[in-house]
Write a structure and sequence with these properties.
The complex is a heterodimer of chains A (313) and B (99). With 313 residues, chain A is α/β, with parallel strands linked by helices. Chain A is built from twelve helices and eight strands. An eight-stranded mixed β-sheet of chain A has the order 2-1-3-4-6-5-7-8, with helices on both faces. Chain B has helices spanning 48-51, 78-82, and strands at residues 34-38, 58-61, 64-68, 90-94. Chain B is elongated, with a radius of gyration of 17 Å. The chains are: A alpha/beta (313), B mainly beta (99).
């Protein structure tokens, strides 16, 4: 596995000058993902912050072929590109030894919600591609509306905190497990704070034939109401509190890639984010308890799954 | 910088942008209210600043920190925050000093 000094020789595939916010988590994820690719890559991108921020006409930040068609069909678009590549190779129009990799990017809105059916279809058909969800936990691009990735209790513009409601009332949907239920060869969760783990996982996903899915946390300080400089720190805390465990499911076998020596209380992650400010009022203590219990239960479940020789979700 | 003055006849069909990475020509450095400043003496070249930079604005040459790309750095401060040395090799300074 390459260290940072070796990685620094890689070409920079994402140019500066994109219009994503200062301290945005998404481009950190993208830079690390593109560092993992040794072969030429083709990217498809769902509508979202990443797409909008990197392609304001007449500029593009991408130094690799990149296509955007709509919000809901990043996975369908890359399916078509991949199928065309397979066809042209079979016809001899692309040399048989010319390897090209296919990556689809989507935010949590374009993946958990709007793009779920096209993602499910592409996973089921088994196209040879990697889907990467950069998950910032709400529709940040349009002004912080809740998504099915938003954690319980978070204050968003569609789950506002007032006299009656105290933020989102549902827990986050576990998309990695939903992807794994398609019985695809490789599913993983990663965090840009753990760059070595992230790059290794992307490499593995790119090398694995068939459809692979990666869910990567990408803190958004505008939506999370956190400090811009704390983006990477929050991506790390998400892991050490076990809110965002680093694990992979390879051919039905679960492996946890990082087990914190001491599991940090979830409040340490919550208190750095203004979207959870109201939870620290005494009358909302039960919401924090509920969130903590959900995280604890998921962590226990994951550890139990790891002990099994094989799982079928 | 902008193609506003060009007619549709000379623009590529379908909104294609033929020049890869052309956002490099767009200066987001103007967004900055404070800038990271590098102190070579404290730097251990761990390159954490480089791997965590959202704006590809930490330039590394020969496996060592070379300089900040102030044309694109937005001054988020992640590099300063993540700098692991006891006395930080990166400090944030108000942009006013440089105007």
């Amino acid at each position: 596995m390459a260290n940072l000094k070796e990685l620094s020789h890689k070409p920079e595939h994402l140019a500066g000058g994109h219009r994503l916010c200062a301290g945005c988590g998404a481009p950190i994820v993208v830079r690390q993902v593109l560092m993992a690719a040794d072969d030429p890559v083709v990217i498809s991108n769902a509508t979202g912050c990443l797409e909008v921020g990197t392609s304001i006409y007449p500029f593009t930040s991408w130094r690799v072929p990149w296509i955007h068609s709509a919000f809901e069909n990043s996975a369908a678009t890359i399916s078509g590109v991949e199928a065309m590549y397979q066809s042209l190779r079979a016809q001899g129009k692309i040399p048989a030894d010319k390897k090209i990799k296919f990556i689809a990017f989507g935010g949590d809105g374009g993946t958990y919600d709007i793009g779920l059916q096209s993602l499910s279809g592409a996973l089921e058909r088994g196209h040879d591609f990697v889907y990467i969800c950069y998950d910032n936990g709400a529709y940040m691009n349009t002004g912080i509306q809740r998504s099915s990735s938003t954690p319980l209790g978070a204050n968003t513009t569609t789950t506002p905190v007032g006299k009656v409601k105290q933020g989102k009332e549902q827990q986050r949907k576990d998309l990695a497990v939903i992807a794994a239920a398609h019985d695809i060869p490789y599913v993983a969760q990663a965090s840009p704070a753990y760059w070595k783990d992230l790059i290794r996982k992307v490499k593995k996903a790119l090398e694995t034939p068939g459809a692979c899915f990666l869910n990567i946390t990408a803190p958004c300080h505008r939506g999370w109401r956190s400090k811009p400089e704390e983006t990477v720190m929050l991506a790390k805390l998400a892991v050490t509190t076990c809110y965002w465990p680093l694990y992979e499911i390879e051919n039905r076998k679960v492996k946890i890639n990082f087990k914190p020596k001491e599991k940090i209380e979830l409040t340490k992650w919550l208190e750095r984010q203004g979207r959870f400010k109201h939870l620290f009022k005494p009358e909302n203590a039960h919401i924090i308890e509920k969130l903590q219990k959900h995280v604890d239960d998921d962590w226990d479940r994951l550890q139990r799954m790891e002990k099994l020789d094989t799982i079928k979700l | 910088m902008s193609d506003e003055s060009k007619s549709y006849k000379v623009l590529p069909i379908g909104g294609l942008i033929p020049k890869a990475g052309s956002s490099h020509d767009y200066n987001t450095g103007t967004w900055r209210s404070s800038r990271p400043v590098h102190n070579k003496d404290n730097c251990i070249n761990c390159l954490f600043c480089w791997i965590y930079c959202p704006d590809s604005s930490v330039i590394v040459e020969d496996e060592k920190f070379s300089h900040f790309d102030y044309d694109h750095c937005k001054g988020c401060g992640i590099c300063q925050f993540e700098c692991p040395t006891k006395v930080k090799a990166i400090t944030m300074e108000s942009e006013d000093k440089y105007r």
